[in-house]
Write a structure and sequence with these properties.
globular, about 0% strand, Amino acid/polyamine transporter I, 23 helices, about 550 residues, single chain, two-stranded antiparallel sheet, mainly alpha
Length: about 550
């Protein structure tokens, strides 16, 4: 099997899906290119700030991507290239991209409220609180885990540390130039990307070596600042500029595969059960995660992206298109793993999934003159930059979830007309919410975050199922077509609940009752949310909305 053919066929399918299926969804969900967005209606200069489509796509893509579409497909390659590829393609087109697009549309229609707010309006306050509690705990886990990943990367690759720190003032200068000096976006982008390359070069020349403890402290301060500062001064421009690293990496990988012409060496299908990864069903769908569908994306789409959308017409390219770009990256990651022999794959995997990906991509890029060492260093730097991007976005989303949990319940009419907090309670304050959220995350990062980490994959995919449920209830209340979400929602609930069952069974045998309790909590949460939403989905308890 040719790696070129695998890549080209899947990329063409993604393009066709964007044009036809994405266009059909936009019509079904009433996308209005001229519709007023929450960013304009509730502009506050902090969270609600309209951004041009290329800038917002950069923020959204950088936030949802991270290392997820790389780690997942590389690890899942043990099941064979065919099931991995099929799930990435089918999952993206019919589940992941509609999930992201639908979450963004639902948030727009609810004046920038998060998925938790959407659930409150369409299902009820109790369901909202359950969702917010779960999503906040998941985000705390994400922050703790990614803080460790970034800190470890900075310790092992101090060049990445220097470059990442230099990106921060660059992003702030870019944001100031665009939003306070009305600098042309194209010229500012060209200058910004050039300085970005300079930052990478300076990082190689002046690596900053600190201990992991020191990096965790520095990162905690940075995350708190990133979650509080206006999006236009740091989060948005940083993600936008960083997205060019990922675009360059994808383009380089695409050209490299075309010119290097790798042949797939791994079998199409290996075995239904793998000694370390478990059963193909459900673990394939849990392991690949962000490469096909991810609940974290719904939090990004409804948490930060919906509050920055300049034109409603941009929702399709950002929501549906952004996920397809991530699918393209997942396919590249798959090829870097499956062109290897089984022994070669196992050897490289000892250094982690990113090592497999960066080595493979660097090898492909030698076909057009890039030195293998340079290519691998650049790829590793790009991946580490995106891990940090996911980290600061997760911090802001955690702050949002914490604030919403402590806000007073709002009626449907208020939720439809106003997205501002309904109370000024102590815990709904953004500074308090940020400190508590990041503080607990960093505490876990220093102590026992690894204990809960095995549950992250299932928790993330359960979040996707619940987000699909939330969007489906909104459409049901509006009398709009939601059938395209029902099958993906049911499938993801089956996958998640089956995976949780396996995890509980294995951890009971190991005596790890903390994980068993956490898995049981997620299981019960899913069942309760399904029960609470059933009447809405079946039309037996349809809420009238303004």
């Amino acid at each position: 099997m040719s790696g070129v053919m695998l890549m080209l066929v899947t990329f063409v399918l993604f393009i066709l899906a964007y044009i036809f299926y994405g266009g059909w969804l936009a019509k079904q969900w009433g996308l209005n290119p001229q519709g007023k967005t929450p960013a304009h209606e509730f502009y506050d200069g902090v969270d609600y700030v309209p951004a041009k489509a290329p800038v917002l796509l950069g923020h959204h893509f950088a936030s949802i991507a991270g290392a997820g579409p790389i780690n997942g497909p590389v690890l899942a390659a043990v099941f064979g290239w065919l099931p991995v590829t099929l799930w990435i393609v089918v999952g993206n087109i019919f589940m992941g991209a509609p999930h992201d697009f639908g979450s963004l549309m639902a948030s727009i229609r609810h004046k920038g409220l998060s998925i938790g707010g959407v659930i409150e309006v369409n299902v009820g306050k109790g369901a909202k609180r359950l969702f917010l509690l779960f999503s906040w705990l998941t985000l705390v886990l994400i922050i703790a885990a990614f803080a460790n990943i970034v800190a470890d990367t900075f310790v092992s690759t101090p060049q990445a540390a220097t470059s990442s720190l230099l990106f921060i003032p660059l992003a702030m200068a870019f944001g100031f130039a665009i939003y306070r000096r009305n600098a042309p976006l194209l010229i500012s982008t060209i200058v910004g990307v050039a300085i970005l390359a300079l930052c990478i070069w300076l990082g190689v020349l002046f690596p900053l070596a600190l201990s992991k403890t020191a990096w965790l402290i520095i990162l905690s301060i940075y995350i708190i600042a990133a979650s509080i500062l206006p999006v236009w001064i740091l989060l948005q421009p940083r993600d936008y500029l960083n997205s060019f690293l990922l675009y360059a990496m994808i383009i380089g990988g695409f050209l490299g595969v075309i010119l290097y012409h790798p042949t797939i060496s791994m079998p199409a299908v290996t075995a239904f059960k793998h000694p370390t990864q478990g059963y193909l069903f459900p673990m394939l769908f849990i392991t690949i995660a962000c490469g096909a569908i991810s609940g974290f994306h719904s939090l990004v789409a409804s948490g930060t992206t919906a509050k920055q959308l300049d034109r409603e017409g941009d929702a399709k390219i950002i929501g549906y298109g952004g996920m397809l770009i991530e699918g393209a990256l997942a396919i590249l990651a798959t090829i870097t793993a499956v062109y290897l022999t089984a022994d070669g794959y196992a050897e490289l995997l000892k250094g982690g999934p990113v090592n497999v990906f960066s080595t493979g991509l660097a090898t492909f890029m030698t076909s057009f003159g890039v030195d293998a060492t340079t290519g691998k260093t650049f790829t590793a730097l790009a991946v580490s930059a995106f891990a940090l991007t996911t980290l600061d976005t997760a911090g802001r989303l955690g702050r949002f979830a914490f604030q919403e949990f402590f806000q007073e319940a709002v009626s449907t009419e208020v939720a439809e007309k106003k997205a501002a907090p309904s109370t000024t309670s102590f815990f709904a304050n953004r500074y308090v919410a940020s400190v508590i959220t990041i503080g607990l995350s960093v505490y876990l990062a220093f102590t026992s975050w690894q204990v809960i980490w095995p549950m992250f994959g299932s928790a993330n995919q359960l979040l996707a199922a619940v987000a699909l449920l939330a969007v489906a209830t909104w459409l049901a209340n509006r009398g709009m077509n939601n059938k395209m979400l029902i099958a993906p929602m049911i499938f993801m609930f089956i996958v998640t609940l089956t995976a949780l069952g396996f995890l509980m069974q294995s951890n009971v045998a190991k005596g790890n009752y903390a994980l068993v309790s956490f898995a049981a909590l997620l299981f019960v949460l899913a069942i309760v949310l399904i029960v609470l939403s059933y009447n809405v989905l079946t039309g037996k308890n349809k809420k009238q909305q303004a």
